[in-house]
Amino acid sequence: MNIPHDRFCVLPWVSLETSPVGTVRPCCLAEEEIVDDTGAKFDLNTAIPAHNLTRIWFTQAVSGE
């Protein structure tokens, strides 16, 4: 995750940033969107059951596992 500064911010651990086009980022300052296991960007505007907030929250990008 590329954050534009080196200061600690709690937002990626307590919230998600969603955009009108359906993509999701860990916080408002993150440059990259969160992707699934295949590298595809999550799209909350689709009817794909795998693209929901619970699944996004537990991705490697967010959980750090």
Strand-residue fraction? 5-15%
Strand order of the largest sheet: 1-2
* Gyration radius from CA atoms, angstroms: 11 Å
Total number of beta strands? 2
Count of DSSP H/I helices: 3
Topology as a string of helices (H) and strands (E): HEEHH
Distance between the termini: 13 Å
Regarding quaternary structure, what we see is single chain
Low-confidence stretches: none
Q: Largest sheet at a glance? A: 2 strands, antiparallel
Structural class based on helices, strands and sheet pairing: alpha+beta
Helix content class: 10-25%
Q: Report mean pLDDT, rounded to a whole number.
A: 75
Inertia-based shape = globular
Short synopsis of the structure:
With 65 residues, the chain is of the alpha+beta class. Helix content is 20%, strand content 6%.
List keywords for this structure.
65 residues, alpha+beta, two-stranded antiparallel ribbon
Description:
The protein has 65 residues and is of the alpha+beta class. It is built from three helices and two strands, in the order αββαα. It has a two-stranded antiparallel sheet. The mean pLDDT is 75.
